């Protein structure tokens, strides 16, 4: 057979041996030694053994061997972009946080969208909650609003989070499914956790198969506290409303997209931003005081409940625009460390037991994931306002505290000092009570808001919820788990329970699960 010779010339840059000329930089080792030959390792003779003195080879392989860091224990698959947040309405009546009071101020932000259960290499269109994490680089330090695209959560107390995630991710013996809700462990756990029922209605809805990140809402989920200059406290729920509108795909479309392009959501965000079609979200707040909160028939500290917008309208106060992709995915999107603990003067936590647990978990996991207590020295995590503290040393320390005094107070006249006027002071909430390991009985109604959500859907959306439940539960092998799930649906909507029981081929609709508290009749008419 004769080999065809190509008539085309190699294009510029297509040479095998590419040397530093025509303005190209000289390749060096990490410590700057110029490299003459990057193609061959050092040997004895042409075909002889390799020499361990080959420091160029050793450095290159050493670094390559350590390229991977642990993926996030949840939200491993994500995609980030830079942008700005511009405040359009001042909230100075309720907070002293400058990011929420100075109209026209543009604050730089970094946003990371993610799925929750799948591994780093999983497909984008999984039926899953999406993370919507925003880091605001404010003038008073970084504020991280680490939210999701669904306004409520599965569990009420952070001590259940490891169980939830163990049950949701791949089963430990078989290591599948990698990114799906459709398996026994997930539904076994959920059906034994009535508090998850409101969230179950949302995850079986079209919300968990968004068309792209650009068409999703975002929510802070928890009730947070705002404190104004006079020291007055209010509660707040945060919302992100996409100016693009909300869109989802059908499950059949999601399955096809996952097969054809598992990076569909990443590509969509990349393409939109590269061509200048910048996605925007309006920041909304629901603000209410403690007395008003006490008038609700649910507890605002319970993250399985939302505050109905009919009761507290959402006030739009600013706009987030994403307009720049990262220069390097690993340096920025992988190494970014969002923390619910990152708050600024005027924005505080509430006693929500899920939020309180998160405040521990993020810092702890990031030490493991990023390997050093200095992960805030990485540019994507570093504040963009002046900062000065006396924390020092540790692996990979990059900041150089100046001078001799690395403690305070000191008599050298050196170093940063506290600022009673501008500094963070916790709201002096009055707390008292016995030390108890309990769940408040105000957290006990698990079905009313699940029903409210289901009844608020259009007929088509209700059909999608029923179809999703039938599809997901039909993958569950244990009939007892299927029945237990349907027994919860009976408390939510008997019509839905009948459709799902029929779809699963159950002989009869199981009796209703025992509610922890009588179901409140939610009249939506
Ligand atoms: C990521 C813990 C609940 C939103 C993470 C990570 C952990 C974690 C350990 C990985 C962080 C990292 O490696 O950098 C928890 C715990 C929770 C909880 C213990 C409950 C007790 C929630 C809730 C939300 C949420 C309720 C939404 C409101 C997120 C988001 C990320 C994340 C968006 C990804 C952040 C990123 O893009 O890097 N969570 N989480 N989590 N969590 Fe949670």
From TrEMBL:
The Catalase core domain, residue ranges: 28-416
This protein's UniProt keywords: Heme, Hydrogen peroxide, Iron, Metal-binding, Oxidoreductase, Peroxidase
Molecular function GO terms recorded: catalase activity
Disordered, as annotated region: 1-26, 398-435
Cofactor(s) recorded in Swiss-Prot or TrEMBL: heme
Extent of Polar residues compositional bias: 7-26
Coiled coil: none
EC identifiers of the protein: 1.11.1.6
The protein's enzyme class: oxidoreductase
Reactions that this protein is recorded to catalyse: 2 H2O2 = O2 + 2 H2O
Signal peptide residues on this chain, from the entry's feature table: none
Keyword match Lipid biosynthesis: no
Compositionally biased tracts (Basic and acidic residues): 414-424
UniProt KW Zinc keyword: no
Function: Decomposes hydrogen peroxide into water and oxygen; serves to protect cells from the toxic effects of hydrogen peroxide.
Entry similarity comment: Belongs to the catalase family. HPII subfamily.
Record-given protein name: Catalase
Species lineage: Bacteria, Pseudomonadati, Pseudomonadota, Alphaproteobacteria, Rhodobacterales
Full protein: residues contained: 1 to 525 of 686
